[in-house]
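COMPLEX REQUEST
Ligand: pyridoxal-5'-phosphate
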Amino acid sequence: MQTQYFTSTRGGENLSITFKDAILNPSASYGGLYTLEKLPKFSNEEIKAFAKLNYEELTHTIFDALGLNIPKELLCKALSLYQNFDDKSTPAPMYPMTPYLSVQKLYCGPTRAFKDMALQPFGLLFSAFLQNNKNAQNYLVLVATSGDTGPATLQSFANQPNIKVVCIYPKGGTSDVQRLQMTTINANNIAVFGINGDFDDAQTLLKNLLKDSHFNATLKSKNIALSAANSVNFGRIAFQIIYHIYASLQVYKSEKVHTIVPSGNFGNALGAFYAKLMGFPIERIWIASNANNILTEFINTGVYDISNKSLKKTYSPAMDILKSSNIERMLFALFNSHRTRELMESLEQSGRYALNKEELMWVQSYFGATNCDDNFCLETIKKYAKQGFIIDPHTACGIKAYATIQTKHPNAKCVLCSTAEWTKFAPTLAKALDLGDLSDKEALQTLAQNYKIQIPKQINALFNQKEIHNKVINKEELMDNILQWL
Ligand SMILES: *Cc1c(COP(=O)(O)O)cnc(C)c1O
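STATUS: Structure written out below.
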């Protein structure tokens, strides 16, 4: 397939941006995001044939059809990292819970959250593209994390040549397991800082740093380019299309499947949306969120309004979000760059935008949405544990969507994306299961014993390792600390 070019969601010049360009320098014109100009649409015959492919073959076929133009050997090498996941035959196995509900385990990689699905192969691609760059540069990747992106990014980039990673997390804002996954990594191309503040503070800090002229000038003088591996990077989105295709093909019999995605920044859901646009048998994509119900409100009313909202802390912290960046790519795909720019500028200026009636109906023909509070989340964890299914708090929020689908379509087949393993949120599970306020270590052990479940060895090992990157700093100290470390 011919190479496809990327375009900014907000329009602008056509610069013949390739997949590689979009990965290395992910900011597009007018503050937009790079997106494929068009998607292929497959016939029913083609889709039937895809069902016979294994996960790796499927990835090659779809990436080829998307025109990403990744050298075959390189993609093979990137996908070989899935061999370290739990199940060698597929990185994203399906588990039927009921005849109507299949859970797709997206957390079988090294850091036990779905971020590994993309970040494992992505890290290898990113560093290979760098090596081939004619004016080979050193890159600095900055990450702010609330707990899952940080470990997955560090795990993927540790010891990769020409790349340094700085990761900041809110001190006290992650679980012990999540913190240890960052602070115990033994690699000298990474720096991890706990920040006195919350996740919003950490994110704002990074944004300001990216704009800081002294910081940028210093990096330039050292021949270091800045990049971001955050969830708007198309390199991550690309890998997140494949498992949705895989799931739909596994579950599809005669009626299309409903795909439920616990959502925050909308990167995971966007992959499912692209799969549906390409013709795969997905009836509707269900966005599940928590008390921060911005996405539910948007999909149900067409109004995206953060002007009067503040972030609430919940038991499903990876979905605690107000500004869900990848929505912009959905708007671009359904409408056009002109309209997307208009809506996004309205959001930036007034904290709000509204779709018209026709646009809303169009969005709703692809998406449904539900949200739930912490109570529902804990009750659901308990209810499913009684039936022998141990699910994490984010996955539990997805059950609300399943219940909603069932009231409307009792025989619908659903796929629930399970985005994290319970081991990352053991104290919350302990609370849900009436075991009291336990530390991560106590909760892991008690749950493993009571419910006869395994703790993966990489989680157990965390508690015996030295916290190498244990520096905690104030916000205003970050820039100096980074420049010193470089
Ligand atoms: C990142 C994350 C999400 C949200 O995914 P988005 O792609 O940002 O919507 C949901 N659940 C868990 C456990 C996560 O780590």
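REMARKS: The chain has a mean pLDDT of 94. The chain has 21 helices and 15 strands.
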